[in-house]
Amino acid sequence: MRTPSKSAAVAALVSLVLVVAVATTVPAQTLDKKVLSLEGARKVAAAAQEAARAKGVDVVIVVVDDGGYILLLERMDGAQVASVNVGIGKARTAAIYRRPSRVFEEQIKNGRVAALALADATPLQGGVPISLEGKVVGAIGVSGDSPQIDEDIAIAGARAFR
Prior knowledge:
By secondary structure, the protein is an alpha+beta fold.
């Protein structure tokens, strides 16, 4: 039986050290993050739809992930078609900017027209972030009625996420 040479043993030891070193540094280079599931999005949308029905309005409800990508979109039977893209924009704005879309509408009303130049921002009331443990995991956007009613419905949806 042949025994490994000294150089082969050293090479194996060096390889083992490198594997251990890489394995211990990888966690420092990655993050664990919570994401909004489809089930969570459904819960948010259901609460928003219930709030809309309670107010007697038909709206579009959009739930997005933390990157602003659509998880769920519902257009209630009487909601206008134009509200689809507006709802998407409101939800996306709240998700990627990590604050209610109303903030940008208020900035513009107060004279900060530069807010109109923000990439992918829809500066209209009705988009609300969805947070977990202080981190935005998604957002809801509602469109189809007055700005305040849209936002009230979005808030009701976001509050359902727990």
